[in-house]
Amino acid sequence: MAYDKIKLEKGMYGVSKKSFTEVLEDLDPSKNYRGTELENLDAYQRQLKRFDIKVSGNGCDNVEKFFTASDSAVLFPEFIARAVKQGLTAHDNALSSMLTVKTIIDGIDYRALNSPVISSSLSPVSETSALPSVSVTTNNTLVALKKHGRVLSSSYEALRSQNLELFALILRKIGSYIAMEQLNDAVSILSSATTLSFQYEPPLDYSDLLRLWNVMFPFKLGAIIASSATILQILSLPEMKDATAGLDFQATGKMVTPFGASLVKSDFLDVGTILGVDREFSLQMIQSGGIKVDHDKVIDQQLEKAAVSVTAGFSNIFVNSVKKMVAES
Question: Where exactly are the structural domains of the chain?
Fold first, then answer.
């Protein structure tokens, strides 16, 4: 089926386990466009081309361009979702730096695995002895999934003449706030999953961070999570003046300690509390579907009542992969 012959309708947003773009791809596979001028576009972008809708750059259209036809109006919720996703992606680097695995589910019920206990003994097993067993079970309680998002509070009349690139900028900012809220959810789970490893005497010293690195064994210190004020203390340590770490921070804004752990800022934690995380074994993210947009309301131009949201939760995988240090009071 040619991309300009597809009948677009609201029901394409309600297909189980498939996004709007995935539904379009089933009807209009991108593989059919290899070697053509459209090979770099996905199925949704080909629909934008079909209706001559420019969402950025020179000649960028206004919001009302989506509503010049009933078919093209169906594309607008996906435009909103993609812009929010861009904001999520651009601002979830902190979460990504401590995320082990992301699981997408169709629904809201999910039971995570109980933290497996694996013997750390380095002694070999004799031929007549049984190998140590590892018990893998699911938790008795469901992972708590939280919804984060915003309700668009503007009438269609107020937005119709607005530039799509400007509107997308607002949507990306919504995505960035959702990412920050999800980061706090993740830090809350990691903080509650571990007990106090040790206290340190203020002011924070580099040797305190080395103690954290040491108690992580047999796990690795891949990320250090702390409040803004505590991160500033870490960045002020003389050891942070290491040439490689300093140049990396100045050039990219990415904060990395001299021994390789990323610095993650989260004001969910109290000043003086620091979490050490092995990002290869610590955190599972469970997300219910993708970015949800009230597509019916958006298509019907009821933007002042349309919600944009993401529903997700977190689970700690290995309890000992997270360590906590707290400043003495």
Answer: 84-115+141-329
